[in-house]
Amino acid sequence: MSLFAVILWICLAVCLGGTVWRMARWLAPDRSLAVPGLPPSLALAALLRSLSWHKAFAAAPRMAFTFFFDILLQGHLLRKGSLWRWIMHFALYAGFSGLLFFHALENFVSRPFFPGYEPTLDPWQFLRNLFGAMVALGLGIALCRRLAVRDMRRTSRFEDAFTLGLIGLIIASGFFLEGAKMVSPAAFDRMAADYFPAPDEAGMTALRAYWATDYGMVFPVESMPREAFTPENLDAGREISEMSCAPCHSPPASAFVSAPLSRLLAPAGARLVDALWWLHVLACLFALAWLPFGKLFHILSTPVGLMLRGLDPGEAAARPDASAPLARAVGLDACTHCGICSRHCSVLPAFLALRTPEILPSEKLLTMRRLAGKSGKLTPAALAAFSEGGFVCTECMRCTVVCPSRINLQDLWLVSKREAARLGHPELSVRLRRFGPEVWERLARRKRPVDRTLAASPSLLDNPETFAQCVQCSVCTGVCPIFRLPDIPAAEVDVSPHQLMNLVRMGLAGHALSANFLWNCTTCYKCQEHCPQGIRVADVLYELRNLAHAKVEEAARAGLLDGTGMPSPDQGDIP
Amino acid sequence: MTYAWFPGCRIPFHLPDYGRQSLAVLSALGAPAAEMEFNCCGYPVRHQSLFASVLSAARAMAIAARAGLGILTPCKCCFGHLRFAQSILAERPDLMGAVTDALRPEALRYDPDLTVSHLLPLLVREVGLPAFEKAVVRPLTWIRAAAHYGCHALRPSQVTRFDDPLAPVLFENLLSAAGCVPVPWTLRLECCGQPLAGKNDRLAMALAHSKYASALEAGADVLVTACTYCQMQLGSSALSCDLPAPGMGQAAGPRPQPPLPVATVPRILGAALGLWPLEDRLEPPSGTASVF
Q1: What is the pTM of this model?
Q2: Which DSSP string do the residues of B241-275 spell out, in sequence order?
Q3: Residue A395 to residue B239, Cβ atoms within 8 A
Q4: Which of A120, A558, B129, B272 falls 20 to 30 Å from A90 in CA-CA distance?
């Protein structure tokens, strides 16, 4: 077996094995994607059981439309999308499909189905260049969008650039290989030996002269003296060429990319044929083997996701049925990290202020994919970021509406919040209320957090004038809705609003932050409205909460908090 | 004034009817609002980060300003927070500078003079009660309605300038114009409890139940809200997701039906305008006029 065959079979096996592995995760989704009360492994069975002839007939036209319009014509990119995006992706998709079927699989498609197929004959030679040029056009638009559009630059990661680079390498090496072959005397000699019956020296010279003139072949000067280009030689050469070569060789002009490239390459390019061939083949085989493990897997997962998506994603998210885990697992794999969701995200300004990447849906999904991967274990810091981003989401459903892969993101985010809570990372304010004074005391010794929240210059807490007028009349406590509730534990109202004002006035913010009441305030502003001294009680409470968030986020970034959000035991005293 | 429609984040998924019915009522009254894409007003991140919340509000207002429109929202938390952002940006130049810097890359400019309005003041002050009364085709005279004001529009009154914070009349006047009988009730200006939902569910539910009890005690047939968050908290939760309350561990389960119907204000007003029928629990038992 040749080296090529060995590599080919290995790559095919890796591709097949990886695809089976990933699809198996759809059929037996991770328990983080489960619908409560139903083992996720039963999702497929539930889906199959729910199918009926009646439903299948009813859904058939919609499915057919989805298949032809959304999958074959990529129409899903036009919905809520832009024409450029469709042109970009359709050029990539159509060009790559053409190359795959008619060029890479020529022995299985082109030869059996198109009698007289020769790769160097038109229209195939032209089509190969056309398909390649389409892919190059798509790549160019994709690259420009990723580089020029600010919102897309923000969400572009290494894998996005790597994937574009890999496809670019395949296409570029293909064009250069074809160009190098066009000017390769070695290839000419090999072909001539096979197809030119009874070659004689004069005939060969005539053929060389004709090919050098009309086919752009470049021969070394010693084998192709200038005086060989006589009109008689060219005529004789054309005759031989038409008899022996033309049945399999169209003129190179139709290779509208490779032919100009070949003139650039000549004469050195001819020596690169072997190297270029290996480069092209290895790039293709690497892409094949990598397919199930990277974003290229969307070639399979996105169409499956498109077919699985129901009519009403909001309804599916609000009341997930038994097959939801399956759709969730496919949805996680169907993301192409195109970043459209993050461009339209309602809480984009919160990301601009807080800078936690997981606030943006496209980034949160990557973390969630790791969470749902059976091997994926998230570090405490990653979980904390996942939780922070997840709970900033306002569930506005816009990402679900704009997603070109039509993933039910709304459903995934609801699950992500549940999972974050299950893994000990509920909304930060829920965790903050559990911190006692000793935690705040230790955090207080750290430098004041500066960025992100602008809590560095709290105009109210730092300003003694804020509380100077407080006479502890307790009107704020008197009107507080929490304090009029019957039958609530005394611990919920451990400190009253007027006491809280006094604590802050005395500089005991650490005690104020650990008060349960601070986190039980509903921010109804009755205290502030009724204060006879005009003290901004509720605004102060908000600022205290801001301060608590800022301190803890800063400590978490510094790695001082353990998985539960509590100060790490091994850190001892926080510096 | 022409307005851009600012539904807020919770309407598309949690309360789509509130959005649809508000727009239907507005166009029936000849005051349509332009639909466009906005970001979150910033209210939900306010206790996490003042800057994030004010930047969100400023960006939304800059988007409206770019279109030359004011902002009209059916959510009192959006309304209150946008007004709060306007007030604090006028008060704190450091925050204003940071917001301006953050908006500059998108070529957005915050406009301090932008008009921010809520559905209720728009209907009462701009459409006008006489015009509204004229448009009513089916006065809902049998309905005794408890108007739930919602905190963040009412207070702090110096910032929101919504109505008299201690004795507001705007909501009741509008309900009267629709033919309803507004009932005075003790807790009408109190919090619904939503800000604690998912954070301290026990307190959140206790607050909601105290509101129901007060409205029932006053003899109300329906509790009327004009805020997305209040309606999510007090209304029968149409969305009993499988989610446990965050931080609580156990599944919350389907929420109990409220002891009296809770309707958003456009649902009531639209019925009075003849746009749609009321739900069963609000129709007069005999199908004729008032039974009260």
Answers
A1: 0.91
A2: -SPBPTTT-SB--SPPPPSS-EEEHHHHHHHHTTS
A3: no
A4: A120
